[in-house]
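Q: what sequence does this backbone want?
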């Protein structure tokens, strides 16, 4: 055996098994010509491929088409497959198994979630199902590796066999030519509809498979009468969580707790990181004798990186909590209860996963729309999902909310958490409205039904939850850190040097001193120097356009640099307000104390802060997302339309907010 592919339905634990088999001997790429992720690894010289999950061989989505192509290639070469079935939903998994077995491919069947079978009072007779199917069967738990040694031995001994139960002769309506021709038609153009004759063929085939699978499962899977029926308990829970009203209320409350936890639980570690960077800056200034180098390190590099790294606790907590919701099976319930609601906006429950993924990052969310068969719905999600509040917006939100609400507030629920919850909710509302509009104007044909399998409630796989949170947080920090490092150094250069002479700056400072009244706060000379630096002139270039929003040239610089990545906004302000300042206060305090030189009032007052928040709710401000939209849609015009429309929406919302507040 030189190669072995893993296939199975979604939520079967296939990826966990792949990780157990391959360990660190993995690599990730893309299938040729498409953005579908390809995971492969090595187990004792055998190449293991993790194929995208699929529900049936009658495919529509891009991910499923990739899996089908691979399966048909395996049928031609007689290469083995490792089929991973969900033990608690065995009948459903065996329907797909029967379709693949009908192609006469050698297989090993892994029946996963042995622990949940036990919890569900189900007893599986492994020998009986092995005799029924005619291939090797392994009962295992991919979470802790139980049964893994038995599976490894079967792979070493090349024990994959062609299942004898599901041979084509079992299905008289499904001859070889009709079977393969329909497949090839689906692969070449998955938008085409089947003919009535083909639909009748599919229905007859499906009915026969159901009868045979039902007969097998009834014989090999029995309820254990000595234990309580936990399935009944799950149904009782679902009566609440899947209720059209109570389920939605529960969902909103769960999300409120998630976002409030982002502030409450992250407070102490954020303070530690803030104090660490303040200490590092102080040491840099004290120990680096060359003044410009000390300023570069403390005011450029450390200020820029510290302005983003301080948000690691909040981002990590958000990923952990969303991971728990996914691992427990609750995320699928959210899809279910959302379906009727989303249909009003031209979407289905299948859009929930990409949309909720946008809370982490719009880029993988947009790529995950490949699971949506309906082209109209897919385009709507691609163009609307960047309005969902991604993790890159979180640093911007949290620092501006902290400026707006200096006091921490009493209790777990406070103004900061409620404000963050409102911003997330506003992004969701905007996403749905835009999706509705796109569906109404779209010329794409809509012709796909949506189905959902609800997984059993289960305890989270804590190792996977924390590892995924670590990986996503690390990816966020590393990708942002590279950009921020370069931008921070560039900003330090632009803000530290001026085309004007020192004498000119002295004159401007003296002129400023002579015009202020005794009640106005006096700023230092360095603030005037920054205004006449190269960075100051860059900000003033766009100041006339952003002044109606309550912004000045300093905010203008941050708006320009944050197009590379939204989170750069914080690092930019941190760098600008650190240069030439001897004040060791945090960036939040500096923003609170920043003065509008023309009015003498606070620059970051309520109106400006809300205006900025709304600008970042609606603006694209992410060149990476722009690039991935172009890649997934295949045309630059969709990406440019999206960018311009979101910019106009952001400007109008910010202008309205500034004039109201």
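A:
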């Amino acid at each position: 055996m030189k190669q072995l592919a893993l296939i199975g339905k979604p939520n079967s634990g296939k990826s966990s098994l792949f990780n157990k088999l391959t360990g660190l001997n993995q690599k990730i790429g893309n299938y040729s010509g498409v953005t579908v992720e390809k995971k492969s690894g090595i187990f004792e010289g055998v190449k293991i491929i993790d194929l995208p999950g699929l529900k049936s061989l009658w495919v529509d989505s891009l991910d499923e088409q990739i899996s089908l192509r691979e399966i048909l290639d395996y049928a031609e070469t007689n290469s083995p497959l490792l089929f991973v079935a969900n033990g608690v939903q065995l009948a459903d998994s065996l329907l797909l198994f029967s379709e693949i077995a009908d192609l006469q491919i050698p297989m090993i069947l892994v029946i996963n979630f042995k622990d949940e079978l036990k919890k569900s009072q189900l007893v599986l007779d492994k020998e009986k199902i092995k005799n029924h199917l005619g291939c090797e069967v392994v009962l295992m738990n991919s979470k802790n590796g139980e049964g893994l040694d038995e599976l490894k031995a079967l792979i070493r001994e090349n024990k994959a066999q062609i299942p004898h139960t599901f041979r084509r002769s079992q299905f008289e309506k499904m001859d070889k030519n009709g079977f393969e021709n329909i497949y090839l038609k689906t692969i070449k153009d998955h938008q085409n509809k089947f003919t009535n004759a083909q639909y009748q063929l599919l229905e007859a085939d499906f009915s026969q498979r159901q009868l045979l699978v039902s007969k097998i499962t009834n014989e090999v899977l029995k309820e254990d009468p000595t234990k309580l029926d936990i399935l009944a308990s799950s149904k009782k829970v679902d009566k609440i969580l899947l209720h059209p009203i109570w389920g939605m209320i529960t969902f909103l409350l769960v999300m409120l707790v998630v976002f409030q936890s982002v502030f409450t639980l992250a407070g102490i570690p954020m303070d530690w990181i803030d104090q660490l960077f303040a200490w590092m800056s102080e040491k840099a200034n004290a120990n680096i004798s060359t003044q410009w180098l000390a300023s570069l390190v403390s005011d450029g590099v450390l200020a820029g990186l510290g302005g983003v790294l301080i948000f690691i606790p909040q981002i990590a907590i958000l990923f952990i909590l969303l991971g728990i919701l996914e691992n427990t099976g609750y995320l699928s319930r959210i899809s279910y209860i959302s379906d009727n609601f989303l249909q009003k906006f031209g979407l289905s429950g299948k859009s929930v996963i990409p949309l909720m993924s946008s809370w982490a990052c719009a880029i993988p969310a947009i790529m995950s729309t490949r699971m949506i068969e309906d082209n109209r719905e897919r385009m709507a999600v691609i163009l609307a999902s960047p309005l969902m509040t991604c993790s890159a917006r979180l640093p911007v939100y949290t620092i501006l909310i902290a400026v707006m609400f200096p006091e921490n507030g009493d209790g777990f629920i406070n103004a900061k958490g409620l404000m963050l919850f409102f911003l997330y909710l506003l992004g969701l509302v905007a996403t749905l409205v835009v999706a509705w509009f796109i569906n109404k104007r779209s010329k794409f044909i809509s012709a796909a039904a949506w189905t959902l399998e609800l997984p059993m409630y289960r305890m989270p796989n804590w190792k996977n939850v924390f590892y995924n949170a670590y990986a996503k947080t690390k990816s966020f920090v590393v990708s942002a850190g590279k950009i921020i490092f370069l931008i921070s150094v560039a900003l330090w250069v632009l803000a530290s040097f001026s085309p004007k002479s020192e004498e000119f700056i002295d004159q401007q400072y003296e002129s400023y001193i002579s015009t202020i009244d005794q009640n106005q706060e006096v700023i230092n000379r360095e603030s005037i120097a920054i205004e006449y630096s190269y960075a100051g002139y860059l900000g003033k270039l766009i100041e006339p356009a952003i002044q109606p929003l309550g912004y000045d040239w300093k905010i203008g610089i941050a708006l320009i640099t944050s197009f590379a990545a939204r989170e750069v906004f914080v690092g930019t302000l941190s760098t600008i307000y650190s240069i030439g300042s001897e004040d060791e206060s945090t960036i939040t305090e500096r923003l609170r104390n920043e003065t509008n030189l023309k009015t003498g009032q606070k620059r970051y007052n309520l109106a400006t802060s809300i205006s900025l928040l709304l600008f970042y709710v609606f603006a694209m401000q992410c060149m990476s997302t722009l690039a991935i939209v172009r890649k997934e849609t295949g045309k630059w015009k969709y990406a440019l339309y999206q960018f311009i429309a979101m910019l106009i929406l952001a400007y109008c919302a910010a202008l309205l907010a500034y004039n109201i507040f």
